[in-house]
Amino acid sequence: MTAWAVYTLYAAFVLGGCGLYLMLPNPSRGKPLAGAALGLLGLAALLVVWLAGLNPAGSSGVFFYILASVAIACAVRVITHPKPVYCALYFVIVVLATAALCLLQSAEFVAVAMVIIYAGAILVTYVFVIMLAQQGGSSFADVRSREPFLSVAAGFLTLAVISVHAAQATPQRHATSDANRANAALAHHAEHVTSVAAGDEAVSNPSVLQGQVSTIGGAVMTRYVVVLQLSGLLLLIAMIGAVAMSRKRVPQEGVTPPRAPLGQAGREVAPF
Amino acid sequence: MRDFFTSQFGFSLLLALVVYGTIQGAVAYCILLERKIAAWTQDRYGPNRAGPLGLFQPFADGLKFLFKEDYIPGHVDRVLFVLAPGLVFLIAGIAFLVIPWGGRLDVSTLPWLGDAYKPGERVLDVQVVSLNVGLLYILAVMSLSVYGVVLGGWSSNNKYSFYGAMRACAQMLAYEIPMGLAILVVALTMGSLRLEEILADQASTGVWNVFRHPLAALILFITALAEANRAPFDLAEAEQELVGGYHTEYGALKFGLFFLAEYASMITTSALIVVLFFGGWHVWFLGLLTPQAASAGAVLAKLLVFGGKVAVMIFVYMWIRWSLPRFRFDQLMRLAWKSLVPLSLGLFVSAAGLLYFGWHRSIPACLATNTTVLVGALIVAARSKAPITGRQANLLREGLQDEHRSKSTGAYSVG
């Protein structure tokens, strides 16, 4: 990875950070269009770096860029939209776009499992949001974000460090010059043809295997079985905790309940 | 052109359009059937003015939905208010994509398209998409369908709609768990998440899953009723308490979309139950219908048998709706969390045990575990007292206090 690519990557994150900072809700600023423009500029810089050689999308091409842009744009709206209900809805779109990205890598099981799990989880969030959010206009807490500068700086610094290191660690799939690129494509194609001719595509192309439920099930039940058991235990603990917290003392037949004032009857909750 | 329509992609596209159209048409007549069944249950005539036997009533209803004023009340959140019915309708329209309607089709047996092909040269799936996670796909799409209801209820900015949305939410969260577990029992027994493999397995052995796991079939049926928001689980739109529930503020075509989506999801869930438990297009007395039979005639017969089974299932849905009273909310929650979840968990564990011993395909072993689970549940239920919940607890306390007061003062107490 060349030095200018690293600098462009850093520039993209600086631009994106500034853009996000300007877009975060703040009652003393006007419309956050400048922020959106800066953020788009940052995305464009990222695109330049990717197109110039580093191609994380592999062969899935244009769909990757569309879905990734949708996911990023909606993720920004999750934290910048003043209405909480819309934020939750944008989160649904982020999840769907990410699931579609998994589908592009033919990880069907992960994609579908993600939708099932997050759809339920977001629904619970939704319940809370709907309970707390008021329909008539935004509340005081919704129109300003807490510590916007620090959180944006921390987030984008982490993102920059991780992605620059990941980019340097990833081998370049396509050489920069056109001739090299054509050669690489030809070689890739030849390899593909031979492997298909050998009837052995699944072995040369691991992504064919990755999405299979049986592969994932086998891995979970053999190599990661301890992790599986531990997460089950964790969920059990969480469930016991939830039951304990929602415990309520109710009278039983034949037992005279302690007397309570009429309006208060049945309302008291015994702490666990 | 011919090559396009006989490729799997072109055929899937065509099939999706045809099935979608058929479902929409079937929905219109389901509404008529529902009204006829309601009338039959309540000993009246039902719709009989438009056309012979009221057969043109769906057209009249459809035109009414189309030509009514599309009114948006002033106090609603306009974006979500418009988005919600569309979302419901879209999701009801993509859930059926993985249902294997008619096995496989050999193109060469088609009347005029197939002349250019040799037998067995090109064999297509009569299914829009063949996913290796088809079962999970249906679960995922159905879990998304509640968003439309919740958004519609919230954006209406009306407390009755809001209550409807909250009830739908809680109900969906509760009933998804037993539904998933009941489906997992089938997945364990069949060893596949592909719907067409599950179906072909039942057809080639001639043993429908309902004979192995009748209890799981029952649980899936009950939860499917709840997921489709059908009575006795239609608390989200309880007319007596909530006016119309989440669609109180909707009118014209937007209300029509909610309506269509409800019936379309009924058809999809019926098809799912038929595939998982009732052998899809398989019947014993028609030897023609095997997984290998791929001629055009066989596919047509399979489609008809499948459609007939789905129709029977839908009739049962409607029969139940007009026979049973609606649940109260605490009864609904108790049924889900205290009955269906433990039952389906027990079934799931027993199915896993059968799989461990290699008896998962033997009918007597499966029936024995089902009976054991059911009998165990009945014993536990008989030995435990009916829980005193929420309002009943208040009534009990107030009753005790009234009793106490009437004893001490000699005052007259009602009840």
CATH architecture descriptor of the largest domain in chain A:
Up-down Bundle
Biggest pleated-sheet summary of chain A: none
How far the N terminus sits from the C terminus of chain B, by CA atoms, comes to 79 Å
Q: How many strands, what sense, and barrel or not for the largest sheet of chain B?
A: 2 strands, antiparallel
Level-1 CATH class name of the largest domain in chain A? Mainly Alpha
Helix-strand blueprint:
The complex is a heterodimer of chains A (272) and B (415).
Chain A: H1 3-23, H2 33-51, H3 62-80, H4 84-104, H5 108-132, H6 148-169, H7 178-197, H8 201-204, H9 206-210, H10 213-222, H11 225-245
Helix pairs in contact in A: 1-2, 1-6, 3-4, 4-5
Chain B: H1 2-6, H2 8-41, H3 57-67, H4 78-94, E1 104-106, E2 123-125, H5 134-144, H6 146-155, H7 159-190, H8 195-205, H9 209-212, H10 214-227, H11 239-242, H12 252-277, H13 296-321, H14 329-357, H15 363-383, H16 390-409
Antiparallel strand pairs in B: 1-2
